[in-house]
Structures are given as C-alpha cells and as structure tokens.
Design a protein that fits this description.
This protein is an alpha/beta fold. It is 14% helix and 26% strand. The chain has two helices and 20 strands. It has helices at residues 17-26, 50-62; strands spanning 4-7, 42-45, 66-67, 70-71, 76-77, 82-83, 88-89, 94-95, 100-101, 106-107, 112-113, 118-119, 124-125, 130-131, 136-137, 142-143, 148-149, 154-155, 160-161, 166-167. The radius of gyration is 16 Å and the shape is globular.
C-alpha cells in the first residue's frame, strides 16, 4: 500500500492560514519536498491556485513522488472517463461518459464535466460549475462558482470565468 502525502501548504508567500499551519505541524514546509520521500511514496497537491498547484506538482514529480488522483466516495465518475494524475474530484461532482481530465485538475463540490468534455492540465471547476458536452476548458483555466459552458464551447488557457458566468457557442 502506498503512503500518501497531502501537500496542502508551505512557506510560499501565497499560502497562509490553517492549511499552512497543518502542513508545517505534520511534515514541514514545501521548501524541500525530497525530505518527505522517507514518509510517503505518493502525493496530491490540494491547492486551488492553478499555477502554484502545477509548480508544486512538478517539484514533487522531480523528487520522485507519484501523483495520485483522489475521488470522493460521493462523486460520480463514468468508467469511460479518463482522469489524469494529481486530480481531485470532490463530493457531489459528476464526470460523464468519455470526459477527459488532464493532470492536476480540480472538479469541486457539485461541479459537472459532461460527456465528451475536456478539462486540460491544471484546470479548475469551482463549486457547482458546469462544462457541457463537447466543451473544452483550457490549461490552467478556472471556472469560478456556478459558471457554465454551453455545448461545444472552448475556453482558452489561463482564462478565469467569474462566478455565475455563462458562455454559449
């Protein structure tokens, strides 16, 4: 059985509060993740900031960690969906038939990735966001809470959709 390291925080200026305190109390900081290889074989980066999540994931990979995917037991994921390493599928989320999620993707509580949709590496669906069938969320793009993509919509890399935004083709 693999030993799992949940990288939730560190000494990075962008991180503060409870997550930072928990991580430092448990293992230390993100300054040298190689030191944690004696404690764990695999890791998940649970940070909402897409750029930071990618940077820390790459740091973990370089240190020899395996990035694992976590799926909440109350999420629904189609057996034909493809989910990349380091992704997190939260409670109440739905990932549909033939959906494709890249590395380090977050599908937050109640969010939906419909059939044949794609979420590229380090994309992030906020609470109750919806990617309709055949739509594409670009690399490191972020759909904030309640935003929606209509059928066949393509969102460019790095775009941030505000809460409640709706894009139609």
């Amino acid at each position: 059985m693999k030993r799992l390291f949940d990288l939730i925080a560190g000494t990075c200026a962008a991180l503060s509060g409870h997550g930072r305190s928990v991580a430092e109390a448990v293992l230390g900081t993100t300054g040298d993740v190689r030191a944690y290889r004696t404690h764990a074989d695999a890791a998940i980066v649970a940070i909402g900031n897409n750029a930071l999540r990618e940077a820390l994931s790459n740091k973990l990979l370089a240190a020899g960690f395996e990035l694992v995917t976590v799926v909440h037991p109350r999420a629904i994921v189609s057996p034909s969906a493809v989910i990349g390493p380091g992704s997190a599928i939260m409670a109440g989320a739905i990932v549909g038939t033939d959906a494709r999620l890249g590395c380090g993707v977050i599908v937050n509580c109640g969010a939906v990735v419909d059939h044949d949709a794609q979420v590229h590496d380090y994309g992030h669906l906020g609470v109750n966001a919806c990617v309709s069938g055949g739509s594409v969320l670009g690399r490191s793009a972020w759909m904030q809470a309640g935003s929606a993509l209509g059928y066949g919509v393509k969102v460019a890399d790095g775009v941030v959709l505000p809460p409640g935004a709706a894009l139609m083709s």
